[in-house]
Amino acid sequence: MVSIAWGITGAGYLLQECVDLIAELGSVDVFLSRAAEEVLRMYRLEDNLRQGARAVVRDTMASAPVVGRFAHSRYQVLVIAPATSNSVAKFICGISDSLITNLFAQAGKNRVPIIVLPTDTAPEMDSAAPGGKLVKVYPRTIDLENTAKLREAPGVTVVENIEDLRKCLTIYL
């Protein structure tokens, strides 16, 4: 059985779809940033997530000792979806100051494949707000540049939508 580590950051973009995919996959340990916990509440998805995930790990410790699981080959792939522009910028700069950024760093150091679904992939996007209303979002140039840089990072696959994420995961399943 393939074991998946899935990090969720504080983004609403495709959050419902990510939670649905986690439930569909079943064998997923979910890691939540502090902002992800807030956003899951705003979108009323915390119960759905808990029902679908094998385990839910919250960002409560400064040193994030749970990332040591990558050194022990507990996971075959790390998914970070959705990934905010803030998280992507930290990935690019090598900053590891939270649970999610530490997961990214440790997966890379242990050569565990990483799949990232950034929130900022096009100059104009539709995103569902809490309640389901679609709103237009216009990512900043710096956010689009960071997403482009992430595409070049070794061991990282950047996907732009749930369908691509699903296809990418079939490689590991």
Please describe what this structure looks like.
The protein is built from 7 helices and 8 strands. The protein is an alpha/beta fold and 173 residues long. Strands 3-2-1-4-5-8 form a 6-stranded parallel sheet, sandwiched between helices. The model has no long low-confidence stretch (mean pLDDT 92).
Put the structure in a nutshell.
By secondary structure, the protein is α/β, with parallel strands linked by helices.
Please identify which CATH superfamily we are dealing with. Flavin prenyltransferase-like
Question: What is the domain total for the residues?
Answer: 1
CATH architecture: 3-Layer(aba) Sandwich
Strand arrangement within the widest β-sheet reads 3-2-1-4-5-8
The CATH topology corresponds to: Rossmann fold
Poorly predicted runs are none
Radius of gyration: 15 Å
Largest sheet: 6 strands, parallel
Morphology: globular
Distance linking N and C termini? 8 Å
CATH class: Alpha Beta
